[in-house]
Amino acid sequence: MMQKRADLDWILKDLADGVPQTRHVVVLSADGLCIAQHGCDVDTADRIAAACAGLQSLSAAIALELPNGDGQMRLVVIEMDGGFFYLMAAGTGAYLAVLADEGVDAGLMGQRMRDLVARIGEHLSSPPRATAAGRGT
């Protein structure tokens, strides 16, 4: 069962405070809905979540091209001018996204994200949304 947004605030703050240069932390569902955020306003978090849905879908399609690929995206890291972007699977149907400045310790960020997912991953699972007929999508 997915925790409420407020229940995740302290967890996301802990990640951001534990890794210097962290800018935004967002938890999103596989269909791109923001579940919780830290370090950004709701509009920014919603844009990040929507973009992440496309990115995780793209990376899953690419993963199928590997000989032993199962189509499951685990981690995407993008280095760009000004910083880094991380997207990690964080439970069934849920993802953890982080934007960080270029001075971030990339190894520390990856480790802290993995630790957070391992510690609370089952609480970050996002069940399929129900349709008007009451069936999952």
Automatic annotation (TrEMBL):
InterPro entries associated with the record: Mycobact_SerProt_Inhib_Rv3364c (IPR053141), Roadblock/LAMTOR2_dom (IPR004942)
SUPFAM superfamilies: Roadblock/LC7 domain
Domain Roadblock/LAMTOR2: 9-100
Domain of life: Bacteria
Pfam families: Robl_LC7
Protein name in UniProt: Roadblock/LC7 domain-containing protein
Organism: Streptodolium elevatio
